[in-house]
Amino acid sequence: MEPRARGEGARARARSGGRGRGAHPPRRAGRAAGRLLTLPPAVRLAGVEKRFGARAALEGADLVVAAGEVHALLGENGAGKTTLVNVLAGLVRPDAGRLEIGGRAVDLRRFGPRAARVAGVGMVHQHSTLVPAFTVEENLAFADPAAGRWFRPRAARARVEALRARYGLDAPLGVRAESLSVGQRQRAEILRALDRGARVLVLDEPTAVLTPGEVRALLPVLRQLAASGCGVVFISHKLDEIRAVADRITVLRRGRGVGTVATAATDARSLGRMMLGRELDALAPRRAAAARGPVLLALRGLCAPGLREGSALRDLELEVRAGEIVGVAGIDGNGQRELEEVLAGVRRPSAGSVEVAGAPVPLGARALRARGVAHLSGDRERAGLVAAMSVAENLLLKATWDDRRFFRRGRFDAEAAARHARACIEAFGIVPPDPERAVGLLSGGNAQKVAVARELAERPRVLVAVNPTRGLDVGSARFVHERLLALRDAGSAIALVSTELDEVLALSDRAVALVRGRLVPLPDGADRDAIGAVLLGEAPGVAAA
Ligand SMILES: Nc1ncnc2c1ncn2[C@@H]1O[C@H](COP(=O)(O)OP(=O)(O)OP(=O)(O)O)[C@@H](O)[C@H]1O
Ligand SMILES: [Mg+2]
Question: Cα–Cα distance between 116 and 111 in angstroms, integer?
Fold first, then answer.
């Protein structure tokens, strides 16, 4: 482990205008908490309070992150995790509380995103904030306070390359951000934060949008950052990731810190109890399907063009019967999005057909919906919800004039719509229970519940669920799983396309995998290595044709 000073240290000092702000003393890296305690913490947040209107998002939350550790933040949807890290990044001004960065007190009344950057706080948002038309190196130079007036491509490249090599972060240079994969964009954002001299790096649910392989690649990078003396704040709903990467875990419940524990000294059960105030197994108990009925959804020789190489759909054959859940496992980029888009009616197949209850359907969003096909997407930003619209409006989003629930003789019945919104909020536990609130102001998980409520409330005949629990905490995910099982038991046919293998295995009556655009059988039993090999296309018979 090397003492940090040299290159970026000097850069960070230069950036802070030579006044010493944000230039922390060199730190020795180390994982042992004992050694870390002798240094000032990278971050100390104490007694943070924040209200949004009548709602308290934070009520006296604390967070102490040591330099050189990965510190996980865990809590239910709406517990205040994002709000707390936004305070640290200068994006939310708290009503009360104290903040120290690298042992220096910060005046929160005059703290903003720029001051946070100068103080060494880097934030990696879940959704890319890169300029799509710029390359990685241009993005790094863009709005860089330390950059001169002119963009110097060679120097920019050299800087990025040095960081890339040091942290094992692979983001291609010379390529526009818009054509990068989600994982590459995220790595570019981390590079940008490091390039600006970040000593504290905050990642808000970075893994929610990554493939399993990308997650496996990201976690060692976080360890490497910590080893170089950074304080890393890592938010995730996935306990296995947290246990793999975090030194300590702070649990938030309803805006308050419940406690901070060393990862090695705790287990999933007690974390669950801290988080929820009760015990809960992550997955709903498995129940076998009662009776299967006729085939309600069928893909017949379905082919569709792909967004990239290897993701074109090739000759898919699949039947889903009434009363069963058919799981489609797989890693993103193997045709998952293409299949979702075809079944949502927004991508035209090049051959083959989709049948609902035995009859081919014209593939358009309205036609599918009219035949009772609902579409629940985990990609709420792109496919599920309109952030600027209220909860009530989002619940109505797919209703048409012939929807008897909201229209009487072609006239919109506002009272019925309001009743429906209140019922959904109640039934699906959407917090806060305010139908007029814009969905963009809900926590990520509560926004996802709005999409779930809209698609499930109607009891669709066929449900296409794609990553339905993305971003949900364990309690909410389990709730959705139970709703899916109940829908199945009520006789609906469910196609569950998920990149989460556990979800597929736990819920499906039958499962296949979508690999390089083809459906292939999953090996029987719970041999994860064998399943993993199939998903990665390594098993015999799956090789690209
Ligand atoms: N800008 C805002 N305006 C109004 N309310 C907000 C705003 N931001 C957050 N809230 C509310 O504050 C509470 C905490 O939200 P926050 O996003 O911090 O939760 P979270 O722990 O990150 O949840 P999730 O796991 O779902 O992402 C939520 O009830 C949310 O609705
Ligand atoms: Mg959040």
Answer: 7
Rg (CA), the chain: 24
412-448 tens-digit pLDDT: 887 888 888 999 999 988 988 999 999 989 888 888 8
Cα separation of 407 and 409, whole Å? 6
For residue 423 the two structure tokens come to 């019922």
Q: Write out pLDDT tens, residues 517-535.
A: 999 988 776 677 778 778 8
Probe target for ligand 1 pocket from 443, 449, 469, 480, with the most ligand atoms within 8 Å of CB: 443
Angle formed by the axes of helices 474-489 and 268-276, nearest 10°: 90
| Domains of the chain, start order | 6-128+198-276 (3.40.50.300), 295-384+457-535 (3.40.50.300)
Give the Å distances, CA to CA, from 331 to 336, 410, 498, 515, 533.
8, 44, 8, 8, 11
Atom 24, ligand 1: which residue's CA is nearest? 77
**Sequence-distant (≥ 6) Cβ neighbours of residue 535 within 8 angstroms:** 329, 330, 331, 501, 513, 515
What is the pLDDT, as a whole number, of residue 5? 39
164 vs 285: which has the higher pLDDT: 164
Look at ligand 1, atom 2, and give the residue with the nearest C-alpha: 441
Q: Which two tokens stand for residue 287?
A: 């129940």
Side chain identity, residue 306: G
Instruction: Please list every protein residue whose CB sits less than 6 Å from any atom of ligand 1.
Output: 52, 55, 57, 75, 77-83, 431-432, 441-446, 473
Q: Quick one: which ligand is closest to 75's CA?
A: 1
Ligand index nearest the alpha carbon of residue 250: 1
Residue nearest to atom 28 of ligand 1 (CA): 78
**At 342, is the pLDDT very low, low, confident or very high (cuts 50, 70, 90)?**
very high
CB 333 within 8 A of CB 181: yes
